[in-house]
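Why does residue order matter? Because the sequence determines the fold. Keep that principle in mind as you read this record.
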Amino acid sequence: MNRRPRVLIPVDDPADPRVEPFLRVRERDLTGRDGRFMAEGEVVLAVAAGRGLIEAVLIDRKRAEALAPILDRLAPGTPVHVAGQAVLDAIAGFHIHRGILAIGRRPPEPQPETLLRGLLGPSLVLVLFGIGNHDNMGGLFRNAAAFGAGAVLLAQDCCDPLYRKAIRVSVGATLITPFARFAAGADPIAILEAAGFEPLALSPAGRERLIDLKPPERAAVLLGSEGPGLDEAVLARSRTVRIPMSPAWDSLNVAVTGGIVLHHLAFAGSQTP
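Structure:
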């Protein structure tokens, strides 16, 4: 049976109440969206479209025909608004050069313990402390998805993975990689160990070299903020690991570090490309 073509809703006035959720994008980036997130760009929309998270879409009308295969994967009844570039920019409050915005509902966030219990057998998780930069957060989630991490766990002082820029940098990985945030006062190391995960803490002063590390069956990669790194209390209770590098340099960007470590743990001893 042929699927009925999706109805596109033309918008010619930036004050049209139907596009109110898309108004003042940057201002709402700072104040929050009451349980929703803003996504932008074709790649992110393609990732989110089939997952039932998108509530409404606003696109440049010139892109509607090319985007039809993605739009057809949205849940039935999801409104798709189309506007000219000038109207689109007036709604958002800045130039939307990708010509695609979408509003989605945030999925429920599980407890870390629940998320870890659901990972059976050999598993790999990423645990983040003090990651406040949305570019780094997006890059870390992209790495987690690329190398098969089953979950990302966040300390209270980490930024929001569903902030618009973090979603964009992750190319949608923050929408498909399970994540949870430790409660204030929680003991992340105890929670990881109770679920059978061995904490591997990355530090330039780590006792073991990554290239010598035999991956544990259930590994938790712990990364801290650039500069301060992980707290001494966390390092003292973890297996500490370093990435050897030139003597003239002592550290890497945290997202780069995450990518190197996750790749090693995912493929060390395997011939699978």
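Residues 15 and 173 are 32 Å apart (CA to CA).
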